[in-house]
Specification:
This protein is of the alpha/beta class. The protein is built from 16 helices and 10 strands.
Length: 340
């Protein structure tokens, strides 16, 4: 029986713990919780009433607020920490990590200050002790649906070694469970960029909904949003087919149209005229797109890539541009051929 440690007990970290408990591989699972009171509640109630109510934690899942207890003997570590906190959490975790343990990042976003992808943050943080072996997990996966066992397909990416993706293949085998299917990929960069960018496009899609715009506007925005995602990702070295797969188009559609999407909800409320502080004050969980727009724009400017939707979302979020004016700015741009 292998031990898997999940760091981060938000909705997705908790859902992954439940999913992995169903695996035929029969894992011992620890779920690290930053908040001691929440850890105690999970141990007592066997339910994360704060982030994933209605889903019981199986007996094979052991919640703890101790990084040492969570990581001791772990053969795989899963990072489900918000992007802004990954570096700090893994700096604290470093003394308790075995030198050979692989890390699977399940966080979709960029580090706000450095604009680094999560695999890059982990590599920097862990390289002080050992050469990190890192994979990324992404795709269309609302936590509640996956935890309830509804059919969910995701992608796990790791670098190629001798023509294979050994870490992705290992995680595919270890994490597969009834209703939870994983596809392997070697395009780590493309998978991570897609996961960060789709959240920003979802804020724009939500703003259209909040403004009362119809299906025409939302379909156009999703399609041109995918074009933006592809332009930037390919310019940075990603494969275009990754953006047409689960981590790209699949997750984009889910996040733009799915009712549970936090990023879509932020956009809806901004479209209805609420300010960003008002919106965020009513949310328990992180909407990663709020912190991703500016870093993505910075990356795009470094590589001379045009991201008109992302630019307008950043203006709504950080320059108080009304959502209706942002839509007008996009529609009034110079006419041009359709291209990716």
């Amino acid at each position: 029986m292998s031990k898997i440690a999940i760091l981060g007990a938000g909705s997705w970290g908790t859902a992954l713990a439940i999913i992995l408990s169903r695996s035929p591989r029969k894992h011992e699972i620890t779920l690290w919780v930053r908040d001691a009171a929440l850890a105690a509640a999970l141990q007592k109630d066997r339910e994360n009433k704060t982030y994933l109510p209605g889903c019981k934690l199986p007996s094979s899942v052991q919640p703890t607020d101790s990084l040492r207890s969570a990581l001791e003997g772990a053969e795989i570590v899963v990072s489900a920490v918000p992007s802004a906190h990954v570096r700090a959490v893994f700096t604290q975790a470093l003394p308790h990590l075995r030198a050979s343990v692989p890390v699977a990042s399940a966080t979709k976003g960029l580090e706000p200050l450095t604009h680094l992808r999560m695999s890059e943050v982990l590599e920097q943080t862990l390289a002080t002790n050992f050469l990190a072996e890192i994979a990324v997990l992404s795709g269309p996966s609302f936590a509640l649906e996956a935890a309830l066992g509804e059919p969910t397909a995701v992608v796990v990416a790791s670098p190629k070694v001798d023509g294979e993706t050994p870490l992705a293949a290992r995680i595919q085998e270890e994490f597969a469970a009834p209703g939870f299917r994983l596809y392997t990929n070697d395009d780590v960069l493309g998978v991570e960029l897609a996961g960060a960018m789709k959240n920003v496009i979802a804020i724009a899609a939500g703003a259209c909904e909040g403004l009362g715009l119809g299906s025409n506007a939302q379909a156009a925005l999703i399609t041109r949003g995918l074009a933006e995602m592809t332009r930037l990702a390919v310019a940075l070295g990603a494969k275009p087919e990754t953006l047409a797969g689960l981590a790209g188009l699949g997750d984009l559609v889910l996040t733009c149209k799915g009712a549970p999407s936090r990023n879509r909800l932020v956009g809806v409320q901004l479209g209805q005229g609420r300010t960003l502080p008002e919106v965020l004050s009513g949310m328990r969980m992180v909407a990663e797109g709020v912190n991703s727009a500016a870093p993505l724009l910075a990356l795009a400017r470094q590589h001379h890539i045009d991201l008109p939707i992302t630019e307008q979302v950043d203006a709504i979020l950080h320059r108080n541009l009304p959502a209706r004016e942002a839509i007008r700015e996009i529609m009034d741009r110079r006419q041009k051929p359709e291209s990716f």
